[in-house]
Design a protein that fits this description.
The complex is a heterodimer of chains A (271) and B (556). Chain A folds into 2 domains: 84 residues, no CATH class; 157 residues, Cupredoxins -  blue copper proteins (Immunoglobulin-like, Sandwich). Helices cover 39% and strands 22% of the residues of chain A. In chain A, helix 2 runs antiparallel to helix 3. Chain B has a single domain, classed as Cytochrome C Oxidase, Chain A. The longest helix of chain B has 37 residues. Chain B starts with 30 loop residues before the first helix and ends with a helix. The chains are: A alpha/beta (271), B mainly alpha (556). Chains A and B meet through helix 2, helix 3, strand 8 and strand 10 of A and helix 2, helix 8, helix 9, helix 10 and helix 11 of B.
Chain lengths: 271, 556
Amino acid sequence: MILVLGGLWIGQNVNLLPVDASANAPIYDELFRVLFSIGTILFLGIVGLVVFSLIRFRRRSGELSDGLAIEGNLPLEIFWTAVPAVVVLFIGLFSYDIYERMGGMAPLDHAAMDHAAMDHASSNQGSGSEQRVWGGIGTPLLTASEQGTPVSPLPVEVTAMQFAFLFRYPKGDFISGELHVPVGQPVSLSMEAKDVIHAFWVPEFRLKQDVIPGQPTVLNFTPTRAGRYPIVCAELCGPYHGGMRSTVVVEEQDAFDNWFAQNNKITATDT
Amino acid sequence: MTATLPAQSEHPSPSLQPQGWLRYFSFSVDHKVIGLQYLVCGFAFYLIGGALAGAIRTELVSPLSDFMPREVYNQVLTLHGTVMIFLWIVPVVNGAFGNYLIPFYVGARDMAFPRLNAVAFWLIPPAGLLLISSYFITGAAQSGWTAYPPLSITTPASGQIIWILSVLLLGGSSIFGGINFIATILKLRRPGLKMMQLPMYCWAMLGTSILVVLSTPVLAGTLILLSFDIVAHTGFFNPGLGGNVVVYQHLFWFYSHPAVYIMVLPAFGLVSEILPVHCRKPLFGYATMVVSIMAIVVLGLVVWAHHMFTSGTPPWMRLFFTIATAFIAVPTGIKFFNWLATLWGGRISLNSAVLFSCGFIINFVLGGITGVALAQVPFDVHVHDTYFVVAHFHYIVYGGSVFVIFASIYHWYPKVTGRLLNESIGRLHFLLTFVGFNLCFAPQHWLGLNGMPRRVAEYDPQFAFINQLSSVGALLMAISTLPFLWNVIMSAFNGEIAGDNPWRALTPEWLTSSPPPVENWKGEAPLVTEPYGYGVPAEQLDLQAASGRDLWSNGR
């Protein structure tokens, strides 16, 4: 009982994660707290049992007799088959729920894909019209439905290469080395790799997606907290893999508009 | 190598096989010699792999890439992974203990195919030397032990090709061994010995060998296709030529996830042998242990895609592999609860073998808990390919398998040499290893959660302190091998004489002399139908316990 309460307390109160900065990060943290609580209870319980057994049932000097000849106990076996099964089922259902709330179960076929993202992805491919577009976890529909009004996502084309990320803003036709996004607006990244497999990871967003050559991939997310967060390549991509980092700048709408206007090439040529 | 073993002089009969210490360097067909060849050869590669790990931890003491060039760092991490998996853990938990113990356990005088057995061992030293020498000749492979294309196609080809050749040889050795174990366990049992009377390690090796035979050929095929891509510029996995890199990942993990069970199931079996002897109790729940081994074998074959949740995998596939993976926790949990029940109410000798076994239980439980968490797609998407995963699998393969290897060496050393290892040095070894291991790998969970990816030579300076802590743990682990080596070498000459059966064990390998004669028994092999028949029935307990205490007080 103390164990369960203690485990729950540790699970709820010990924070091992960085700040949450995207719409799906709080959902992720909810899952993490549940897993951490259950894990703590199980781990402390089993360590406690081992240590208790080693002390309580140790052989005192001079004792030569054997222990109890118990070869098994069917009810006990059924009990400890059932308990992990129930725990695993619970975790499975819970994480399925979390997964769905993050938008992971959205089908990947063309109808369900965001049209803007689709257009960019397919226009990038040019000749390969039959190419399938793969999606990561996380979707802009999440915040859109919460606010009631659908917000069109900001499209960004990401190119990963040895050893850098490039971000192209098709609405302004310019390329940036940093990813700038406004707070609260869904972002849709169409990603492709030029050479080897890379992975786009923002720890504060709790999102990661491999960027695989020959396989255009879409990753959607909604930033919720202004700040500068690292973008890390998480798939071994060559000697400078550790140095393949960039920054995502999440800023207020005004600041983002300013930055966008400064770099915008389309309006510059228009005026 | 030979220093640990006094030469046997009982059989001076003329033979083409060398006698004495030379037979450990010969093409011997004696399963005990082959087992020790595997063990000592594996341990030599463990020292090499450990030195490579030391190089990695030294590089990571500072956030900058300042200890070795970046290309060399990638070669070192590739070699570290490959050496530890293919040259240390797999050959030792399967080849070494399997060859030494399985013929005893089934009541046979040797393995089913002794010559194949010797061939399987003698593939390992050349393959290992080939792998290590690639570093000095052309530069080793740089694409990690996973060798994902297109990276493995674009990095220098010679190192990658040597890596593939070496892994193919080691895979061949593993398959030969697996076939041999299956045949021995199923066909060479002593008349009258039923399957459900076999010691648990036989069941573990049967399950492991089934996995080896089913999955290793897939790896071999995959690596041959990869080598075609590199040498002949075919396009199986080259996206530039219309290939698909995700297919490689599926094929690779179809072997490499079962490989985890190939490393861990034999360890489960060895612990099941060690604990009952030293707890003086029967193994709890024999039948459920057998069933859970087989359940792990079946489930282990259908979980591979959980290594690929961030690659392009469709949602249904993520869901299926989440469920399958999480359910492995059930049979594994049964085994752990059974070991706890074996401990409960025993008369536990707190010797090094038991301490390492209990260290294994604690480490593996933590690794198992993080494993169930990693099976959950939303969780995995954040920590995949980070130090959280590094910590997780080291808790499984080092905290699990390697701890059991040490426990087994302490347990079976008197069998092999006839002398006991020094107990106090053994406990010091355990303490250093346990503290060093946990100091090294526990903080890495936090590193992964907070944004440090794996396989990097440089990292965000905010992680410097935790990395230094981890490196101190690695240093402790390195130091911990010194008392162990000292103990093993000195005890071979000066250790306390053990007698034939120092642990009063009932399994068949102890029912002969220590060290055992060629062909294992002087006469007929004993028929052991209750390998775990320890303990006193409950009704006799009071009397026995009382007399035990009387003895104890008299002794004082």
